[in-house]
Please model this.
Amino acid sequence: MMEEKNLYTANIEELYKDYEDCSGHVEWSSIADELFQTQSVMKKYAQREKILKDKLRILSNDNSCKNAHYVFEFTESKGTIKYNEIPELQGVDLEAYRKESFKRWSLKKI
Model:
């Protein structure tokens, strides 16, 4: 079992070898802990939100619905276009039409 843990630690260290090591930074660790716990709570709420939306959808007979305090509205967006499946666009450089890149930070527990 100890050998397994050492192998896991070695793999983690190799995987993140180019990352800055913030192990000694107390404030960084504290904020990371708080963020991780916040994300866990939000996941639970997201699951609960899905359950409640499904119940309202069923009670609304799949129609937009309202009462004196709330509006439960259905909207549908068009799907994305599969540009790689359009024969006329094969070999066409679409980079000039690309929007700005999307940047995001994520926290993972290791």
Remarks:
- The longest helix spans residues 26-59.
- Strands lie at 65-66, 71-72.
- The mean pLDDT is 89.
